[in-house]
From TrEMBL:
The modification 4-aspartylphosphate is found at D54. SMART domains: LytTR, REC. PANTHER family: REGULATOR OF RPOS, TRANSCRIPTIONAL REGULATORY PROTEIN YPDB. Residues 3-114 form the Response regulatory domain. This is Response regulator transcription factor. It comes from Chryseobacterium oryctis. Keywords: DNA-binding, Phosphoprotein. It holds the Pfam family Response_reg. SUPFAM superfamilies: CheY-like.
């Protein structure tokens, strides 16, 4: 759910933007402001994850406001002036939407925001029932995950130092949702690998840096359905 706050010095612009947001699923406008100073006084105490900021405002513009907002708040800029685009993206914002705003373009911006918000909310550890009881496993330590040969509901996890655990009754889909998307890839129907443990890969196979017996490295077959996403992750 996107909970957004709007800042625009024009009341008509606020009303129009609120109307558009009400037509978009999973988007809630928590509050709207037409004064940057009041916005800055209140924003850190408002339960929201996205700020939609107009750039051209009297007294303090949206670029200045953005620099004073906590990193936990994602930002979409709106403006009628294209010359601000470079400065806007230097601030690493979600998107830059030109006025007059169209619903379809706003939906695109919200989709980007959703993905970033979901990724930022993912913890850097997994807490789950394992073969040794309730266990916290830090995701940066995970090298490889595979479906257990004993019980397909369980998942075998190998850490970078060779330590292994069995995650009890957890699907690969649910597991992927817990992991930082930028750091892990599903290779086939049964296996996930941390990208940092990939040594090389071809169209059909991944060679990892994970030692199997002290002499050989773990090799994974790439499933046809997963080739495209893997190539995209490596920018090929």
């Amino acid at each position: 759910m996107i909970k957004c706050v709007i800042l625009d010095d024009e009341l008509l612009a606020i009303s129009y933007l609120k109307l558009l947001c009400e037509q978009i699923e999973d988007v809630e406008v928590v509050k709207a402001f037409n004064d940057p100073k009041i916005f800055l006084n209140e924003i850190e105490n408002i339960d929201c994850n996205l700020c939609i900021l107009d750039i051209e405002m009297p007294g303090m513009n949206g670029l200045q406001v953005a620099k004073l907002i906590s990193d936990s708040k994602k930002i979409i800029f709106t403006t009628a002036y294209k010359e601000y685009a470079a400065d806007a993206f230097d601030l690493n914002v979600v998107d830059y939407v030109r006025k007059p705003i169209k619903k379809e373009r706003l939906i695109q911006a919200f989709e980007k925001a959703k993905e970033l918000i979901q990724n930022s909310q993912k913890k850097d550890f997994i807490e789950w029932n394992t073969n040794i009881g309730k266990t916290i496993i830090f995701t940066e330590q995970i090298a490889y995950i595979t479906t257990s040969e004993i019980d397909s509901r369980d998942k075998d996890v190998i850490l970078g130092d060779g330590t292994s655990f069995v995650l009890k009754n957890l699907s690969l889909k649910s597991l992927l949702e817990m992991l930082p998307a930028k750091d892990f890839a599903q290779v086939n129907k049964k296996e996930i690998i941390a990208l940092s443990y990939i040594k090389a890969f071809s169209n059909n196979e991944i060679i990892s840096t994970i030692s199997v017996d002290g002499e050989h490295f773990l090799r994974l077959q790439i499933g046809e359905a997963y080739k495209h996403s893997l190539i995209e992750m490596f920018g090929k």
